[in-house]
C-alpha cells in the first residue's frame, strides 16, 4: 500500500515555490519538504493550525510521505501529532487511521505556518535574509518581566 501524500493549499503554492531554490527561485530551502517542515514547526510554535481548503494539484503537487521519511522528518510529524492529541496510539504503525490523522495534523500546522510566513515575508525581496532576521529575533527575544526597573544593579 502506498504511503499518503502531504498536500499543500492551493493559495500557498506560489509561496512554497518561492521558498525553494529551484527553477530560478532563490529560496532558502533545497526541497519542498524542507520548506513544509519549517512551516509546520512555525505553525506549531504559534499554535496556528489551519485546514487546507483547496489542494494544489500543480507545482508543488502533493509530496509523498517517503520523501519526508528519507529526510528524517517523520519524527517531526510524529512529535506534532502526539503533542496535539496527547494520545500515544497516534504513533501506531499498524493503524492506517492513525497515519492519516498524523498527516492531517502536520498539513494543518504547515498551512498555518505558511500563513505566518506569508505575512512575515510580505514585501521582502530576499526571503533568506528575512528568514534570518525572523530566526534571530526569536533567538534573542528578551523575556518581558513584570518587575519594576531596578537601579540598584548599577551601583
Automatic annotation (TrEMBL):
InterPro entries: DNA_S_mod_dnd_assoc_4 (IPR023983). This is Dnd system-associated protein 4. It comes from Hydrococcus rivularis NIES-593.
